Amino acid sequence: MSTLTRNDVTGRIMVALDYANAESAEGLLKQLEGIPCYVKVGMQLFYAAGPTFVASLKDRGYKVFLDVKMHDIPNTVKGGAESVTRLGVDVFNVHAAGGKYMMEAALEGVDKGLAVGATRPIVIGVTQLTSTSQQVLNDEIGLAGTTEQAVIRYARLAHAAGLNGVVASPLEVTAIKAACGDGFVTVTPGIRPAGADIGDQSRIMTPAEAFAQGTDYVVIGRPITGAADPRAAIEAIIESIV
Ligand code: C5P
């Protein structure tokens, strides 16, 4: 049980629109009509449906997390950040592995793209992808130490660069908040309601557990999008938290 209201909780659920085209995404949105959740547009949908689809989501009042994980030279990321800020997204992300200067460049791009009176987007850093195993981290990527150590180091770097928060596993929320402060936003995928199919996620928590850890937003895809009744699925998730 938590002190969060139904509206608080709903606004902190980011539904991953992992679809190949706008038509499929619209099908889900229709089923969730009237539920004021966030929607997450990742690279599959963005590369297919593009800025027009995102602009149409914004026109209809959706809060949008554009999950395109920018990682390039600082000048290019600055330009990308400027473009997505002009698009009016509420949250977007860049890879912390791009370094402090690259993350600072993203914030400069936001400054450039922000219209007068518009709300600043929340810019978050991708720490270590939840799909990265210890072996891949050490032997392929070439970083020493544990995944949690890598995540905390990236979180500190993102914080030092002035970013608003990070994407991480819910298992790392406590350590991130301890290192970077309670106000440093955490966005956590790897969420599975009790009894749900785990799929390719490994380090998972239930939505209620993730909020109990103090996460700010949970990202949920297949437990909602793959359900026979997506509306019933998100309602059950909300009920499990409030
Ligand atoms: O279907 P599922 O709930 O596993 O979807 C999780 C979403 O979060 C996907 O869109 C995935 O790309 C995204 N994500 C993730 N792990 C990260 C970063 C993003 O699962 N570290």
Can you offer a commentary on this structure?
The chain is of the alpha/beta class and 242 residues long. 47% of the residues lie in helices and 16% in strands. The chain has an 8-stranded parallel barrel with strand order 1-2-3-4-5-6-7-8, surrounded by 5 helices. Helix 3 links the parallel strand 2 and strand 3 (63-70). Helix 4 packs parallel to helix 5 (100-113), helix 5 packs across helix 7 and helix 7 (147-161) packs parallel to helix 8 (173-180). Bound molecules: cytidine-5'-monophosphate. Residues 16, 18, 42, 129-130, 167, 189, 199, 201, 219-222 line the site of cytidine-5'-monophosphate.
Topology:
Blueprint: H1 6-10, E1 13-16, H2 22-31, E2 38-42, H3 43-59, E3 63-70, H4 74-87, E4 91-95, H5 100-113, E5 122-126, H6 134-141, H7 147-161, E6 165-167, H8 173-180, E7 185-188, H9 207-212, E8 217-220, H10 222-225, H11 230-241
Parallel strand pairs: 1-2, 1-8, 2-3, 3-4, 4-5, 5-6, 6-7, 7-8
Helix pairs in contact: 4-5, 5-7, 7-8
Bound molecules: cytidine-5'-monophosphate.
Cytidine-5'-monophosphate binds at residues 16, 18, 42, 129-130, 167, 189, 199, 201, 219-222.
